[in-house]
Amino acid sequence: MKPLTPYVHRNSPIHRLNPLTKGAFFLCVVIVAFTAPFLWVVLSLLGAVVIVAAAAKVTRNLIALVLKSAFLIVVLIFIVQGLFYPGSKAALWTIGPVTVWREGLRFASFTASRLLAIIAATVLFMLTTRAEDLVSEMMAHGLSRKLGYVVLMSMQIMPQMQARAAAILDAQRSRGLETEGGLMKRFRAYVPIIGPLVVGSIISLETRSLAIEARGFSSSTRRVRVEEIHDSRGEQMARWAAAAAMASFVVWRLVSWISSLIR
Amino acid sequence: MSGGTGTQVGIVLDNVRYEYPNGVVALRGVSITMGKGETVAIVGENGAGKTTLAKHLNGLLKPTSGSVTVDGIDTRGRTAASLARLVGFVFQNPDDQLFQNQVSREVAFGPRNLGYAADRVEKLVRWAVEQVEITDLLARHPYDLGLAQRKLVAIASVVAMDTPYIVLDEPTTGQDYPGTEKLGRLVARLGSAGKTVMAITHDMEFAAEHFARIIVMAQGQVILDGSPREVFSHPSGLERASVEPPQLARLGQLMGLGECILNEEDLLRSLC
Amino acid sequence: MDIVIDSLTYTYPGQAAPALKDVSLEIGAGELCCLIGANGAGKSTLCCAIAGFVPHFYKGEMYGSVVVGGVDTVQRSIGDLARRVGIVFQNPFDQITGATLTVFAEVAFGLENLGTPRDETRRRIEDVLRKVGLWELRDRSPLELSGGQQQRLAIASVLAMDPPIIVLDEATSQLDPAGTRDIWRIIARLHAAGKTLLVAEHKMEYVARHASKVVLLQGGKVIACGSPREVLGRDDLARCGVRRPPFMEIMRGLTQRGLWQGPMPLTLEDAAAVLKEVARR
Q1: Which of C83, C99, C158 comes nearest A153 by C-beta?
Q2: Which of C155, C222, C229, C241 registers the highest number of CB atoms within 10 A of its CB?
């Protein structure tokens, strides 16, 4: 069964950081990359992400995943902006009817860098943080037990549902249900496949809710997670600092944006 | 045997080997011939390849090498849905197939898929619930029934397709004694109606009492194949397959009796 | 008495007929009590009543009382009862929380909810995982286990909360022979360790061998309650939808023909010894 998140276990200081700390810095990178006015800022963020990934020993996974998810869209950005950037004056090359514009390329590289920085930060966060740990930490800091459970369960149950859907497909095909062929045939196959999936999940849920109730789920006692997640004064301060930096950055960008409007 | 001319009646597996996409080899050269009206129990521990084998019988899986023919038709190049006319297959978990809001509709789903006329569908539904002895459940909602009864509904919904071959995956799981007896009678009725019944089962009493032939599998191979008496006379083979013989056969072994004990008469005969 | 049920009559919501009719039962501490009977006889409902799911979860109409470890179930919440009664269900997969990544974390779930101190939790997890033979698999995902292993995990998860009473509602019915054997080995060990066990089971060979008390149910009523020898020796057993183990059937034949007067053997080994003795005569 394939897990939903690409977490890779490594013995690294980055993996050992508190998930909330990583989350705070991840948000920082996303906000700054999204709003920074200079290309060098975005590029240095991208560089920082790669350096952190190296410290976390996941550089190769990072590059593979970023390429996989961003390659096509980056190429598209370059083609569309390079060729059709509105108000372009400086032509770089002209090959037949196709003209590549300098302004377009500059805009494309800026947009693509922003995108790459954001995607890289997201992937890095997921590579080094187990969803379970993140949600647990959020629960320890006030997220409701029910919501936390639902989030974790849906992430685990999704791959399970896929496996069940495959079994159901086999069972119904064995009853003569044609699932290959025209649109109408495939549409008609929908109910016999979704039906058992939904009803089966409801039956499972009933037993499951009994089972978790029997394990003190509704207990009003404060949850104590057995796996201690590392946290420290330093990390807490770093989180606050990251939050403060984020806030001031956003304020600065808002102010300069508004003043540019007034001017 | 493999030189079928296309008119051969029965299911013929010829040196079937199957490798899952992840590289696990589940069947290592299985050759079996099952004729008309045979009742065959397939036994062996989990992972022996029983379900993989069964899925080859109706084309859900196609052999990596070797061949499977049903009444002379090679399963390769046929979809499972088109083979459903020949081979009925009941999955282990009834909840993987039940979706209608009434048992009668559920049982009618298969024959309808095969394109049978309304009156024939109606007749088949009635016949199937009689075979499985669940006529009293016809008007019920499948999900108001317990798991064991849902399983009987799932079996009836495949029996109703009136196929010459029927595969049952673990039919007795969760059944009580009356339920298991119903299934035993079902196997006998289908067999005497000329249908071939194959059941994967862990229940050795069920296999020994209701099937004429038992195939024992281990590690993707057939290691024993014969009548219950023949099969249960081979303790070493059964041990290799981690199959525990039925209770009375074990009793006979504990008593140090040489021959295979399957019922009271056997025991009395070997004691006197 | 660990479990005292007094004239319990219970009807599920929307049903006309009661699932349990005037059931009275006493189960002593340290007893291994097996519930037998056809599907629909009321075994599961009785299990759920002892764990408090009836009536707390299923609602419905309940008369009479269920007292577990001196506590009336109606007066306590399910969570509270969980410390007194642990329950394991039929379907292994449905009992997995689905919110944990490892076997270890799965067992921790209940203890974490109860706010158990970390060292205590760790100690108990190791203890119960060793008891059910899953300690080596502690870092595996619960979803990757076989059905039998998942069922052992469900038992471990319940054991970790250390309830004096453990209810198994047809816990072996979806398992293969090896899985069933593993579960019964654990049941026998828990019995020896002094737990009170209530086990709904169809596989009579195990009931005969291990039970200290057997309760036969039919149509929501208690038909018989006594030693395995008494209950499994009853003439109306098959009529109640229960199959006597084949070896006991043979022994009954010998007794009826006057060939054997001694007590009914409860295990295959004893039956073999008796039969050898009879044959020698």
Answers
A1: C99
A2: C155
